[in-house]
Amino acid sequence: MSIHRRAFTLLELLVVIGIIALLSGIALPSISMVRASAKNAQCISNLRQLNTPIQSYSQAHGDRIPIANMLPAIGLNGPENGLPQLLKGYIDPKSEIWLCPADVDSESMATGTSYMYMPGLLRYTPEVQFQVAKAMSQQKDMAPWARAKARTDLEGQIMGSFYSGIDNRADGIGTRADYYPILMDSADRHPGTRSPRNALYIDGSVHEAVEEEQAKEETKEEKVE
User: Fold this and answer.
1) CB of 160 closer than 8 Å to CB of 63
2) How many angstroms separate the CA atoms of 217 and 196, rounded?
3) I need a labelling partner for 52 at 20 to 30 A (CA). Which of 85, 91, 111, 117 fits?
4) pLDDT score recorded for residue 149
5) In angstroms, how far apart are the furthest CA atoms of the chain?
6) Any long-range contacts for 96-102 (C-beta under 8 Å, 24+ apart)?
7) What is the pLDDT along the chain (225 residues), one digit of tens a residue?
8) Whole-angstrom distance, CA of residue 116 vs CA of residue 182
9) pLDDT value for 216
10) CA distances from 98 to 108, 109, 124, 199 (A)
């Protein structure tokens, strides 16, 4: 007795291929979203963990905010003068916590961190530098190395006041700590949100970076309510 096996017709094969393609088109974006969400969650975890060495350094140095470059410079021996190097007594500068898992930028890899240190930029605002210059003008007889240290210490103290201060501009929006982060993604790495950068704030909270214009709108809404 012979057994006859029915083969797939060309039409049936095309239907099967079409179904597989359709299912793949549905599944792949979902998988990508899950991966992106996982990377975002790890980034948030990194920033929360980095809050501990920042606070430890601050407590060990008279509650001053650490003063370092916004991003490490790339020297002959690797990254230097950045927050990872300043906090080396509290966390390994080469720890994977310094890198956002969504970061594939070669420049970030070279500097050793995916995160921008905002006090390293804000220290140069006219408000801060005016106070530093005024205080340093009374210490002209110090040795260069002592003067440099005194300047850094002053900047750390004044930056603490800066973050706890109120924005007094005509269109000011309240306490600066609410919208000036300590650390934040140095690029938009988490698309799909209103502000695709995660940020660590001085109170230890981690959430999407609040842009100044966004903060103004939220403040207006609160006043209306």
Assistant:
1) yes
2) 18
3) 111
4) 87
5) 111
6) 97/46, 97/49, 97/50, 98/46, 98/50, 99/46, 100/39, 100/42, 100/43, 100/46, 100/185, 100/189, 100/198, 101/38, 101/39, 101/42, 101/43, 102/36, 102/39, 102/40, 102/43, 102/189, 102/190
7) 455 555 657 666 666 676 666 666 655 555 566 677 888 889 999 999 999 999 999 999 988 999 999 999 998 888 999 999 999 999 999 999 999 999 988 888 899 999 999 999 999 988 888 988 888 887 777 788 888 888 899 999 999 888 888 766 545 566 788 888 999 999 988 876 556 899 999 999 998 876 554 444 444 443 434
8) 8
9) 44
10) 10, 10, 24, 13
Q: Is 144 exposed, middle or buried (0-12, 13-18, 19+ CB in 10 A)?
A: exposed
H/E stretch holding 33: helix 10-60
Cβ atoms of 47 and 91 within 8 Å: the answer is no
Q: Tell me, what DSSP letter sits at residue 6?
A: P
Say which amino acid occupies 112: G
DSSP conformational letter for 182: S
Would you call 89 helix, strand, or coil by DSSP?
A: coil
Lookup result for tokens 């501990």? 52
Residue the block writes with tokens 């982060």: 181
Closest CA to 219 of 174, 181, 176, 179: 174
Backbone angles phi, psi at 174, to 5 degrees: 105, -155
Helices of type H across 80-167: 83-86, 106-111, 119-122, 126-136, 144-164
